[in-house]
Every structure is written in structure tokens, then in C-alpha cells.
Specification:
By secondary structure, the protein is mainly α. Helix content is 78%, strand content 0%. Helix 1 runs antiparallel to helix 2 and helix 2 runs antiparallel to helix 3. The structure holds fe (ii) ion (FE2).
């Protein structure tokens, strides 16, 4: 069974965002497998590094899209992104000193699942509305 299974429920209606989210899910699944297998710190940290890098790039893409439509909830959304990066960075430090647990994978899964279902869907809805408005012919 896949730890973090992609499903229709996560679709935002925006292909760029959805493709990014699928990569994030894959990285979290990789982390889960590595931890379940008891892989060493180096392997786990390398995947965590990839997760940080990809998350940063993905968040930047989302935030640029938000700015392009003057998204009214930009700041609260950006704060969530920053908190996620800060949290993974903390995990990275922890893996260097203590033993890591599956709690980390569960936390990442729950955070991302909730963020996609609530905050990203809210944004995707606004994005779709703006695009529809843009496509309407002028009076
Ligand atoms: Fe987001």
C-alpha cells in the first residue's frame, strides 16, 4: 500500500500545481520507505534535501501565480509555506543528531494533505475564477 496516495480529491484544476504536488507526494513516499527500511541518515537526509529544494521551487511557482492575480490571501498562504520549510529544516538538523522516526513522514503527509485540500484548493478556485473572468469578452 502506498503511504501517501494521490487521488482525485487532491486535484486543484491547475495542471502545474497538481504536477508539483505529485512530485512532493513521491518524495514523502520515498522518505517513508527509507525510514521503514531503516536506511541510514545520509540517504534520508538526501531525500529531505530534495524535498526542501522542490518545495521551495514549488512554493515560488505558486506564489508567483498568486501575485499575478492579486490573490487576497497571499500573505497567510506564504506564511504556511515558510512554516513548512522551517519545519523540514528542523527535521534535517534532527536527523544529524537523533534517531528519526516515522512520525516525521506522518507529519509531512498530514501537513501537505491538509494544505492541498484547504489552502491550495482555495487558491486554485480564485485562480480559475480570474482566468474565467479574463476570458470573458469585453462589453
Ligand atoms: Fe500552497
Amino acid at each position: 500500500m502506498t503511504f501517501f496516495q494521490w487521488g482525485e480529491i487532491y486535484e486543484s484544476g491547475n495542471e502545474i500545481i497538481d504536477n508539483d504536488h505529485k512530485v512532493l507526494l513521491r518524495l514523502i513516499n520515498d522518505l517513508y520507505l527509507e525510514m521503514a527500511r531503516g536506511d541510514g541518515k545520509e540517504i534520508v537526509n538526501s531525500t529531505l534535501d530534495q524535498l526542501v529544494d522542490y518545495s521551495k521551487n514549488h512554493f515560488r511557482r505558486e506564489e508567483m501565480l498568486m501575485k499575478s492575480i492579486d490573490y487576497p490571501y497571499f500573505e497567510e498562504h506564504e506564511t504556511q509555506h515558510d512554516a513548512f520549510i522551517a519545519m523540514i529544516s528542523k527535521f534535517l538538523k534532527r536527523t544529524n543528531s537523533d534517531s528519526i522516526t516515522l512520525d516525521m513522514a506522518n507529519f509531512l503527509k498530514n501537513w501537505l494533505s491538509n494544505h492541498i485540500l484547504v489552502s491550495d484548493k482555495k487558491f486554485a478556485y480564485h485562480l480559475e475564477l480570474k482566468n474565467i473572468t479574463k476570458q470573458l469578452p469585453d462589453k
